[in-house]
Design a protein that fits this description.
By secondary structure, the chain is α+β, with helices and mostly antiparallel strands. Helices cover 57% and strands 12% of the residues.
Amino acid sequence: MDFLDQVLADRELRTALAGGLDAEPTPTARTLGNAIADAFGPGALAVIHYGSHAQRSDARADSAHDFFVIVERYHDAYLSLTSAIDTSVGPRTAEVLAHVLPPNIHAIRAPDGRDGRSKCAVLTLRGLRLAARMETADHFTQGRLFQNVQLLWARDDQSREDVSSALVEMRIRTYQWGQPFLPQSFDAETYCRVLLETSFSAEVRPEGDDRVTQLLDAQRVALLPVYSALLDGLTRHGILERGKDGYRQVIFPPLAERRRRQRYFRISKARGTVRWAKHIALYDGWLDYVVQKIARRSGVAVELTERERRWPFIFLWPKAILFLRTRPQQRRMRK
């Protein structure tokens, strides 16, 4: 029996945890999201807006907007997408790759080309539900969607209900993967910080030490009410207790559970690194995207020679290895 079964069935709590999913996005995000839904055709079920623009966390005008596109079947979705816009891969290749380390990530421009570009993660509803139940082998989807996101578009009421329900379960199950790393007592802000730190440590990232604080500051108004409601709900169901110092776990997880979660995050990190190869195959303009992201997040300007641009898989390795060895995240781990 799942120790969160009673929490997952708590309708009042689920309503509270849906907070912010229907928040109004920016006009640009709305335009891009609607265009993406059109491009994926009748097989598109929902579009979820996430990432720096959704969080208002250091997004620049030229930053890509991030979306999860939830579809019924990859086959139909990619037939529609590749007939609507120019892509570097055909529908069959994209469909095959979608089943390997999902989701696929694509760079997609709006049809009129005026409202910037989008970075779209494509996932079936089944894949989203598996991620929500933590029945996936890595943390990629959970790590992005437990944060402040907006359910920007849905095909119909049933699709909105299905996707909203999965997102709420994902928020509830933050306790399942974050539990072993919580301190003796904590409040909602500490809980959110532990989630962000744990999630970030499960990926190779270019950011420095202050990125978690930036994200927490940017999302404080949206995240704290949601996760305060979760902690109160866990208290009502006897999983937490509340004292003068904040919340405490009634049964502290054994060391074996902490080691099991650490192993899960190590595997997730390895899978995320292997997934880069798929991003390179699918994401148009991946090299410029990576260079811009490194500059924006780490402050390190990477100048590419013409030879490195033309044959990155041959000549870019020395710079890539140097950055990976000296990136801010790596320096922090050595301290």
